[in-house]
Specification:
By secondary structure, the chain is α+β, with helices and mostly antiparallel strands. 26% of the residues lie in helices and 35% in strands. It has a five-stranded antiparallel beta sheet with strand order 2-3-1-4-5, with helices on one face.
């Protein structure tokens, strides 16, 4: 299996995740809502995964308070070994 790297945003509540889905759609950013990876410990069970190429757009959404995140992570899937590195 090849190594894949994504961006993942986490949220403090399901409500914030749902709001963020609308903003991602509005900005034309491809994403998927997923259960929060176990490598990332947060209070909400949902996260949004997106292409790292869109990280600047996501950071802009955060900086302009369009989304209320708990964190942004670089998430790497490498076979059975997955890892997460906090960006924000």
């Amino acid at each position: 299996m090849r190594k894949e790297t994504y961006g993942v945003t986490t949220y403090k509540s399901t409500h914030h995740t749902i709001q963020a889905e609308g903003v991602f759609k509005e900005k034309g950013i491809s994403f998927r809502t997923i259960p929060t990876p176990r490598e990332i410990t947060v209070s909400c069970g949902l996260a949004i995964i997106f292409a790292l190429d869109d990280l600047p757009k996501v950071k802009e959404m955060v900086n302009s308070n369009e989304v209320n995140i708990d964190g942004i992570y670089k998430y790497t899937k490498d076979g059975q070994k997955n890892s997460a590195e906090r960006i924000i």
